[in-house]
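#random but structural
TW: two for the price of one
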Amino acid sequence: MRALTLDLCAFGPYKEKQTVDFTQLGEETLFLITGPTGSGKTTIFDAMCFALYGRASGDDRDHDTLRSHFAPVDQQTEVAFRFAIHQKEFEIIRRPKQMKRKARGDGYTEQPPQAEIYEIINGEKHLRYGKVKEVNEAIEDMLQLDYEQFRKMVMIPQGEFRRLISENSKEREEILQKIFHTYFYDQMTKRLAEESKSIQQQLEQMTSQENQEISYIQWPEGYDAENLSPKEARQLLQSLLEKEKEKLKQQEKKLREIQNKQQKAQDHYYAAKELEKLFVEFEQLKEKRTKLQAQQSAIETKKQQLKQAKDATQIKGYEKQVTQRKQEFDTLQNSLQAKNKQLSKVTNQFETIEKEYLTAKVQEKERESLKDSVRILNEQLEKLKQVNVIRKQKQDLTMVYKKEQPQLEQLDQTVEAKEKSIEKLEQEVSQGQETTEQFYEFANKEKEFEQYIAKGKQLKSELETLNKYRVRFREIKQEYEQAQQYVKQVKEELQQLEDAQRQEQAAVLAKTLAEGQACPVCGSNHHPQKAEFHDTSISDELIAARRNTLEKSENQLNQLQNQYVEIRSNGTSQNKSVENLRQEIAQASGLSVDDDELDQRLEAWEHELKGICDKRKQLEQRLFEVQKKQQTIKDGKQELAELKTKQQKTFEKVQKLKEDLVKIQSQLESVLENIEDPKANEQELKEKITKTEEEYQRQVNRWNQLQKDYEAIKEQKQTIEVELKSLTEQIEAAKIAYEQAQKEFKAELEAKGFADYNGYMKAKMEDFQQQKLETEIKTFEEELSITQNRYEQLTITLAEKERPKLESIEAGLKQLNEEYNENAKKIQQQQVQIDRHETTAQRLEDLASEKKELEEVFYDIGELAKLARGDNQLRLSFERYVLSSFLDEILFQANIRLDQMTDHRYQLRRSDQIAKRGAQSGLDLEVIDNYTGQNRSVKTLSGGEGFKAALSLALGMADVVQAHSGGVELDTLFIDEGFGTLDEISLEQALNCLSDLQKGNRMLGIISHVPKLKEEIRAKLNITTSHSGSQVSLSLS
């Protein structure tokens, strides 16, 4: 991606539209962005990042607050960024969420974020994407970088440089994860761990199930079944099952023998029981036969009663006929009396209605007269209504006119007052221009003094660190000199011990020498002065111990030497940082600050800053009042325009009302000429019409109702007269039928032998009573016959039989049953236990088989899970292994530039030390110092050295990402601050390295306050500030 143009409108400190044309740089692809603090240098980067991803470049910048505070409400915030990639040209336009004035009515509404991408073809724009989500996806697809990758490799904001090298291994892992998207490997590790844990839980569950199954086994006495393994328990259970099955066979054999005895005893018992039943039955029959014979006389009496009841039943129908005929005759008599009464009443009603009917019939002419009166009155009412409507219209127009005319006069006065008020406010605002200039002057002073204080506090902190380094340097130096002296002393003591040991060896050799015999050492035949033994003997162990002491002392000396070199290097770097800060403070404030007066200078700056802040707040309040007045003027002008519009509309409305009043008066006069009585009251006329209509309707309704009533009563009278004649005839017939029924009933009583009606009534029985009596007689006769026959049969059967003793036989059978049940229960219990143990044995076999298969799977998955999560010798997880490979590639590219910028002193490398306390390893960084030959932590680098390392790392990371992602074109790099920590030589080396980047046609933008950069870099993007916002201009020197 290569930047072409950037347009900003109402964005950050830029109120008016600003255009940055990067194509004007030409071949100067290295450019500097310069301007006062707070002017909006970093905002240029924010705008590019916001245009591409909808977010600012730094973590401390909220994209919702990017709208310029200088911009008026009606000015929309917008960023347009044109860039080239893959030989194509695109323009992206973004607008953040912001408030805009409502299209209708007063107030504001929230406008959602907007984004579009256009492709530039032959100078014409063609829309490719018009939704925020589509634009976000398209940008990542074009650049092949997401937001995190972009800000790490293309646009490095303030504070991000040092984080690249100073973060711990865990934080560096998170950065590399986002850049290279290695989440897949972490997910695979978690998946393996979850699967391993799941299998382990299953194995534990199976072991628990095995122990549970073993606990179900009922071990007999004599079995030592405690602390058995599942395999031992299975084997012992099989042995127990064989013994239990053999015991079951013996129990079943014994049960069959008891069952044979039981069957024989049971047959004997059933035969004796049947014989006993016959003896009991004979005794019962004998007693029953005697009782039945005693009831025979009572049964004969009941037979006679039954015969008379049946005779009475046969003539019961004649009695019913008499009753029915009597009821019919009485009913007709009652109906005749009621009908006579009804006829008398209806006749009276008929005579009354007939008289009213004849009277109403002669009133027809009167009803027609009322009808004509209603018609004439309605015609008069319609004409009067028309007059009243016109009068009402005139009245309404008059009221509206009286209301609008004062409003028009009031509007005239209000418009005049509003014009005077706006004119006065404009005069006051024109006088507030000086306040605006003073406010921005004091605001800039406030920022300057805040920078002085911040730099002063930083200098104080750096001085404290430098003093700590100096104290530690003196301590290390003293320890180093003491260690040197101690090593020298131990060396001398060791030399003395070795000399003494050699002297002792020479004495041993001298003891064997004889005069004239050659010495095996020097070859001499003469030995004038032989070596002699000393009082103490020097052993090899003593010399070895001393050498060990010397070796430890020398190692300690080397460590102190390394610490000495390191603390001296750190002190030198810290001293440079302190001097750079002194220089920055001196350049900014024009004052040199000594160490002993730093606190006083800080206190003075803070006191002066407080006064500036107070003055700035006062001016800010005044400025706020001016801005409020400006807004009041703007709102007032808008309100004035609305008032004038309303004034014009009201004037036109009043004129229209005057014209309408003239027209309505003319129409009223024309209608009144056609009315006989213009003063008539409409309500009174309506009431008169209503009364006349009601009277007419009343007479019509009464006439109609009389007609209906006359015809109805006439028809009712005729109907009753016909019914009376029919009832008289029916009564005569009913009387004859009743008398005939009485004669027939009396004849039947005499024929059946009943002396009179009372005898008949006594003999009468209901059907169910006869049936019951007949059943009782029949049941007695059958029971007597059966009892007699069975009694005679048993007398013959039991004549030669002896009655059995059932209690003795039953006791023997009960004993055999109990013995049988007891043995059967034991067999059942034994079988249940065998079934349970066989089920347990099968479950244990199944669990053992499943557990074996699962253990084989767990061995593979568990080992893979341990290896992937870093539970290995190197404490390196699967994902970290992949990330370490990427980091090695980045370090290889970074070291090419770091070697150049540090004059071949430093090289970055990935530490191979294993982390302590179980932490993950593989991503820690250390630096090789070629001056000392030692490796040390990157955190020991000074500010300038750290900047070089971080810059190299950022450039190396860009190279590696571009190499791994074929679609990535990183032709642009932006750096925000960091060069202020470099000395002149380091700054020259960094500029040479950055200049090399231009050879690949890569654009590089730098924000910095370092004066030397302003001299060395020709192309500059100048930012200037004013009370109305910042402006951007491009210059080439």
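TW: number two ↓
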Amino acid sequence: MSVPRTAPRLLAVLTALFIATSTVLGTAPLVHAVGPDQPVLTGSFQDALGCAGDWQPDCTASQLSEDPESGMFTATVDIPPGDHTYNVAIGGDRDENYGAGGVPGGEEISFSHDGGPVTFWYDSATHVVQSSAEGPFVTLPGSFNAALGCSEDWMPSCMRTWMQDADGDGVYTFSTEELPRGSYEVKAAHGGSWDESYGVDGAPDGDNHTFSTQEGDLVSFRYDPATHELSIEASDPLTAGSGTQRAHFVDESTIAWPADLVGDGPQTRWELFTAPEGGIGVEAGEVTGGQSLGELTLRESGLEERELTGRGHLTDFVALELPELDRAVLGEALRGELMLAQHGPGGVEALTGLQIAGVLDDLYAGDADEQQLGVHWDGTTPSIALWAPTAKDVTLRLHGPAEAAGDPSAEATEVSMQRGSGGVWTAQGTADWADQAYTFAVEVFVPELGEVVTNTVTDPYSVGLTLNSQHSVVLDLDDERWAPELWADTPAPAVGQFADQTIYELHLRDFSAGDEALPEQVRGSYAAIGHPDSTGSERLGELAEAGMTTVHLLPTFDIATIEEDRAAQQHPQIPQGAGPASTEQQEAVTAVADEDAYNWGYDPLHFLAPEGSYATDGHQIGGERTVEFRSMVGELHGMGLQVVLDQVYNHAAAHGQADGSVLDRIVPGYYHRLDLEGAVETSTCCSNLATENAMAEKLMVDATVLWAREYRVDGFRFDLMGHHSVENMTAVRAALDALTLEADGVDGTSIYLYGEGWDFGEVSGNARFTQAIQGQLGDTSIGTFNDRLRDAVHGGSPFDTDKRTAQGFGNGLATMPNGFSEVSEEEELTDLRHRTDLIRVGMAGNLADFELLGSSGETVRGDELDYNGVPAGYATRPEETVNYVDAHDNEALYDMNVWKLPQDAPMDVRVRMNTLSLATVTLGQSPSFWAGGTDLMRSKSLDRDSYNSGDHFNTIDWTEQTNGFGSGLPPEEKNEEAWGLMGPMLEDPAKTPSPEDISLSSDVALDLLRLRSSSPLMTLGDAALIRQKVSFPNAGREATPGLLVMRVDDTTGEDIDPALDGLVTVFNASDETITEAIDGMVGLEHELHEVQAGGADDVVKEATWDTATGTATVPAHTVAVFVAPQTRDDEKPDGGDDEEAPGDVEEPGDGEEPGDGQEPGDAEDPSGDVHAGAGPGTDGDGEPAADGAGDAPTADSDSASSPTSSAPPAESSRGPLARTGSEVLPWALALMLLLGTGIALIARARRG
């Protein structure tokens, strides 16, 4: 049979489509021209990249692209397994090519590879090329990176400091002549990140290397990867110590001198110099430009214990004693330049500046601490005080009525301030100063500039401000104009004990920016809370009625990074119709991210005044914003909710002479924590504050007290609290405890304090003082966030890129495997049982001395359970831990479970596991903490750090119509590394809840609150009672996976709940109904709690209790609370002979045999606030990329001496044809389908 004429045409079409598709797949050669200076990888792998063959110098598939950061050329391409050779050709032919060591026409470079992406870098100056398959890329992150053209200092990803092994001897070298005169610090880093770095003596994450150089001189670096030792040689180094502040003026008679600078000879001597205007230097071995204050003597016994208080990092320094100086002479010297010289046989051996915080405290803080700073009033007459002990002169500048104040540098009425005791400058005012704008002109020597300047600054104690904080305002907070009636007349609701705290975390813009029921001018403002049209306020009322006690507000003090002029705020233009995994939304948000109205606000500018961007138009200046803030507090109190403010005293927005710097422009070198060289530490993210210094602590205490007394705030959360000392926190506690209703309008003893107790940064390990961290706040009742319970519920670490690989109790670990685990089923089961123990201890107040039957089969204390190498239980009182499973930092709970639950988990399971996770927090004995909207399954479209992600990714939909999932790929800055994994999840419609799903989650969350508030047994509030009454039956080595049983027995000891004999809470995190006899419960009558029996969840109503056998039946993915009605008829405090005394522990369990101990879980940083990391680099709240931890080292989360940096070169730099399997597969399937269809059509044509 002849072939119809249509068949050849069809074949031709299919052939053309095949060729076109093959080109996309990389099986046909590219025809684009290579530029004349374009470097191209040529080698044995080019054919696999889609080139016409190997060793093709004109193939664009292997061309290298210029990196704008460094000027180097790079590409990441998929290389097949095997042994390979290559070199670099220039301009599309082999006339110019470079091999090993950058030699023209040199030997080909070889490497072996297992297959997959390989990154190449080429230096067009040296012609050296290297691949990641040959060994690590080594760079030099340090304090000089920006001087070499990197976008910032401490940047391991910047290839401008790429160390190369040109001669192949195994030693990497780098040299430069581009550094300015000065002293610098540096580390060696592998792979373009802080994951692997080496300091002094080759120590991993060790101390920074230091060096100095004259401007333009040659500095050479050599690094041996075998020993990890870095050597540095400067051709003309500065005198040791030059350009730094390595000496520490500890008190008026003692200076600490670094031991490594001490000379060997007996002729070594030290001399202190001063120069009122600066200019001290060294010429021909002699000090010039300064006046000697005398020689110092070496104290053989070293620094005394009192001298090391708050300065533990100086332990190894030597002690030098000053000659006896008149205090006036010393005070005058401190107002100019101070330098300490070390003389040796050949002249000056070292010359360095001094860190002066210690001596300023010794001379001035005692008197200054007793004085009121800022504006204070005697009737209607104000006076203004500023602490500036090193200032030469201070002038008060009055700018007229605050609402009309112009540029701070414009002409103003000047009032000379008088220097008094304690270094405090004061100006006595008149009644007409009220509501005027003012600034200070401070004449002061600035060490970093080496000269005297006059700084125009606002008052660090400002209680009122003009728009964008251009001026302070002479504001009387006692003026009746600023006391709204609702606030003045509405008392704060009482919370019985700190353990009862049930906290709801909110950002003001998240709360109302998207509420279309509100007038536009009210959205995102203080005035939105309590507004009659506010849907969010309606929800707050429901939460309060159900048992929520407290609203925690993210920073509302004056913030440096938000435009306050609403007319000047930019608004992202979100494209309509952009897909759920599109990049367009984040592009629009990022384009205006620093000019819009949104930021979390962890960038403090003034600590005692409200933020102006949250006030409505016309109410942003002076007392007007105070009125709106106080009205908000009154509205929340009226709803029955206490108010907690998020405080950030660990850092300021800026330091030195930079815009946004206040404190450092008044007393240079005092308020900020300095490293050993005198540079400001930035481990928190930003400009660390030194609250170990007396006047910095005073600012912290005074500000906290002001918010409590003048705004009637009920509690405080401390960002990165571990960067404060225990002494700081107890000082705050004591000052608040002194407040009384009669004298101050507030009972300070009722104010709850908690914060991020992460341990990282330059203070880590109590390096300078005893830190306010987990386990070191015993018996203070100050809470720390409990990352143990959080991570046990989630699994893995908040900082995992592919979070699917590690599940937790709350998302299917060992009970609903998601298919991405990297360990065996047995290891997963062991991990689950250990994590369940962590939850048990967490729900029992995370007490160090609480005992339970552990997964090892042995009875263990809370502090004997392991959490990543540290004790899990650490509290002495239940309120000393705050239990949470999500917060503003890191992913929302719903998003975390999108990652970790099986990808095909149905929505009803997602709803139930959201509730079950929240129940671990809500039904425990410690304060409970929910992120705003988590009860509505709020999503941020998988954003891991939404600090600057705008309203689009952060807003909460209180109407329960949407939860925010699928709002586009989250912003690139913090999420790009995981975009490839996020995209398919965001595009899956099955992961977007319906309004009905959200409504069910909302209603069941309210039931959790009702359960918590239904009985005093839920929050006993006392460690002895918890040890006596709380137990965890059915635990141990053979515990049923996914089952957690918590019993509170009110038949032992004091009768706490006259209506109940106890309660049993049963968690079933598995995907099967569990029926199990509960240890020790035979014959004990229980019934499902009435809240659940009549509640919103129909599934939990299927839970049953069999009294005869003490057996509970609980459906999958469910938490059920069973209660035992009161039967005891005695009220004896001792409970009778058969009852345990307080502190005794009932033997748990069913007689399991002792077994092996549980291995630690995943090694991870403790912080949820990010602030952990190796140094700068911010997560927005400084939570090194943890408060964090939040926190902290998240909290930040982090802790080397050098700042966190950007990641190494990302996958996105691969060549255009270097596609991964997931990218190629759709094309391959399409091609197969196309060819199959064609063959079928041809066959049909033949039959026809």
